[in-house]
Amino acid sequence: MIKILHKLINIINNTKLRRKLVISYLIISLVPLFFVSFWLIKNANDIIIEQTTNSYRASLQQLTNNINNELINYMDISRHIYFNRTLNNYLQKEYKDILELIEANDYIKDNLEGYLKYRNDLRKIIIYTANYKLFTGGSYMVQVNSDQLANTEYQSISKSGINGYWGKPKAVSSENNYWDTAKPNQKYIEYEFVFSYNLNMNYSSNNPANILSLEIREKQLYKLMEAEGIDNEIYVFNADGIIMTTNKRDMLGKSIASEKYFNMLKRDQKGNFLWTNSGNQFEVMFNTTNNGWKIVSLISFHNIIKQTSNLLNFAIVLIFISMVFSMLIIYWISRLLVKRLNVLLRHINEMNDSNIPIDQHLDGDDEIGILDRDFIKMAEKTKYLIEEVYILNIKKKEAELNALQAQINPHFLYNTLSMLNWMTLKCSGEQIREVVNNIAKFYRISLSKGKEIITVEKEVECIKAYLEIQHFRTMDRIRSFINIQDEILDIPVLKLTLQPLVENSIEHGIYEDKNELCILIKGWKEEQYIILEVTDDGIGIEEGILESLMNGTYTSSKGSAYGLKNVDQRIKLHFGDKYGLIIKSSVGVGTTVRIILPFKKAD
After folding, report:
1. Which of 155, 513, 564, 596 is most buried, by the most CB atoms less than 10 A from its CB?
2. How far is residue 378's CA from residue 375's CA, in Å, rounded to a whole number?
3. H-type helices in 307-388, by residue range?
């Protein structure tokens, strides 16, 4: 026994840490959890089945009460009409005066129509009469015919007395009445199921000539089933076994008198029993309505057992809680086992936050101690690289950006001072003053108190001032158009982004013999970018010259074109290599320079 114990300890000592944790998790959580769950399901299953059965029984009782109330309402309506002696006298009277006949028909119609206004569940209220003097053929009065008088159900109405007679469900179209005799091969294109409540209107005789018939939409009773949310089979049938309504819609109007459980329902007013059909076991619950109809609920044992899913859900929650509890235990154990690894991990996290842990060391010569010391050495080298290389590169890029920026202002100042010297000889003082104001506005915006970044709106103001200056310089040979979306006006850009491009269009794009040069400046948002575009209809650029323009080596009699390279480099240095200029040009057609910048709101 001792040898076996020692062997087991050796196996544990030689097992990887992760495997130890997995084995402990299985032992601590899953094994006891299996027994707890099994015991819980075993003992609670019977309780759930009983509660589910009681729930079905309560729903059936509520449905019975609702149907009883609905049927009583129909009987009350019929009795109100039945006890209306004025209406009954009109039905029995022999008319000689046409005015009396019209008065009788109007009274009967208004009386019956009043009930229909407030009862959508009533399809029609009809009086079948043999009084040929009355106006018939409409929706309220129908002349009884020999076929109807010969109908067995119709004859039963006269014998039903004050209790009335409930007719079975029929499919009738909007044009037909309930007691119409079906014609051979008659097809109902648009129909609905109705059943009827009928009452003999003759007080002192069994003459079936005056019959009150309420045509009731079967779907009213079906709605009561839907309201209960019952998911099992429900049948409501009369004493002959004719199904009056059901949630099994294909069975409506059929007979279940041949079913084996039908005779068992006649023994009591209410109850339940087990019934097996085609190998499936059902719990049969039934109640009886006040008029003798049976309401039967067929509950499959499968549906009852299905309710145990609630228990399963509870078991899952219990398992989850147990797993969390087990994980807490494992976390505590693993923390003791891998405490040294956590120290090393903390060092790595501190390095990510630029805090190099150069003064902390783990004792010991095991793998973790060696790894920690090597990590400290690597951290020291990384710190050096960050401070000596990375930061120096950033400063170098900033210096290059400032140098490129510094190239623009002296170049523009040289051109404008030359123009002012020319204007003192050619132009009036007012024109010179206007040019000087635009120069001041241009430099006020371009200097921007030392800021390198301004908004698109300020850049547009700057280029407008520059164009006003160029109009004087070129003697109005330039026509400019600016179209910038409002959405991008507050987006930050490098200052003096547009001016070098417009200057190149003017200096290198205008024909010597052409009266004017058109320049179009546009700006819009496109996905996550903003696009600024300068288009002119000038000379254009030959394909071989584009490369020299972009590297700043191209020169002509009009001067260099370093501005394009300058703008492109500044954008790439500040925003990244995927941003910058795209140039398209055709000789004799013009040039388009597109600037691609990030769509980024100002901080």
Report:
1. 564
2. 5
3. 309-337, 339-352, 367-385
The whole-angstrom separation of Cα 534 and Cα 523 is 9
d(CA 512, CA 379): 65
Measured between its terminal Cα atoms, the distance across the chain in Å is 74
CB 238 within 8 A of CB 293: yes
Measured CA to CA, the distance from residue 497 to residue 592 in angstroms comes to: 15
- d(CA 204, CA 202) in angstroms, rounded, equals 6
The DSSP bridge pattern shows strands 492-494 and 555-556 to be: unpaired
> Looking at residue 320, what is its pLDDT?
74
Distance CA 556, CA 158 (A): 119
For residue 78, the tally of other CB atoms under 10 A from its CB is: 21
Q: Which residue, among 554, 542, 540, 534, has the nearest Cα to 510 in the 3D structure?
A: 540
C-alpha 429/C-alpha 451 separation (Å) is 33
pLDDT digits (tens, 9 = 90+) for 34-89: 777 777 677 777 777 777 788 888 888 999 999 999 999 999 999 999 888 888 88
Which helix (H) or strand (E) segment holds residue 413: the answer is helix 391-426
Return the domain boundaries, the chain.
Answer: 427-598
The Cα–Cα gap between 451 and 456 comes to: 14
3 state SS of 293: coil
Q: Is residue 530 scored above 80 in pLDDT?
A: yes
Please name which of 489, 576, 481 lies closest in space to residue 530, comparing C-alpha atoms.
489
Say which DSSP state 245 is in.
E
Q: What is the pLDDT of residues 82-108, one digit of tens each?
A: 888 888 888 888 888 888 888 888 898
Place of tokens 């597109």: 594
- Burial label for 86, CB within 10 Å (0-12, 13-18, 19+), is exposed
Distance CA 223, CA 595 (A): 68
Q: pTM score, two decimals?
A: 0.48
Q: Where are the beta strands (DSSP E) in 121-186?
A: 122-129, 141-143, 165-173
List pLDDT tens digits, range 290-327. 989 999 988 877 766 666 666 667 777 777 787 777 76
Least confident of 2-11, 13-22, 482-491, 545-554: 13-22
Whole-angstrom distance, CA of residue 255 vs CA of residue 465: 96
